[in-house]
Amino acid sequence: MITSDAPTMTLDARTLLIRRERVFLILAGIFLCAMTMLNLLGITRFIALGPWTLAVGVLPYPITFLCTDLISELYGRKRANFLVTFGLCLNGFILGFMWLGNALPAADIQAPWQTLLLAEPVSLPDGSTVSEQVELFGLLYATTSGAVLASMLAYFAAQYCDVFMFHFWKNLTKGKHLWLRNNGSTIISQGVDSFMVVAVTFGAQFIAGAMSLATLFSLMTSNYLFKLTVALLDTIPLYIAVHYLRPYLGLTHGEVGYGLEDD
Fold first, then answer.
1. What's the predicted TM-score (pTM) here?
2. How many Å apart are CA 210 and CA 189, to the nearest integer?
């Protein structure tokens, strides 16, 4: 007979563990998916959304702050920081493979859609200019690699800031006023993210004179106001999610997942 020194887990405890890990996996998956879309879509297209001019990659990004706030509330600061750290590593993973794909020599056989014929010279975010024929991947690499690097810097500052400020407000209010720690953390972190990512992505164009200060400031402001609006609106789904997930995960008010309480 095979025996184990591990304690036998009751069915109820096992069910709660499965539920908690499953919900964390879903929230982490949404977080990483939204972050990856930001990097891959990047600045490949600008869209007009009401009064805002936005890079298409910005659209899913505010969801990441909702996910980290939910994880902070339900699982504690340690798991939120773990997810942010893993997301930073994933950013580096994406950038590394983009660099590798650009560094490897192209094959002799190329499909027709892999080369574009430009009607006029195009200025890229890194300050360089391409004209006539350009490889599709090369163009995508030039427009997204800088954005990925910018998002890594902004991500590092903004996401850690969001988790820190969330728990700062939580400790200050002794676990009360969920709306305050949700919005108080996101208002500051979204500002850090919006201004850093635009400054790093388009800084070279501004220095080279290809972009005016007014345009640069307009992009920063549009990014921030869009993210701020979404952050304020996500207070409602945050309350709904916490209301239903706490009993589903077997958590009392102020309690977080198994053994993950903050020190």
1. 0.75
2. 29
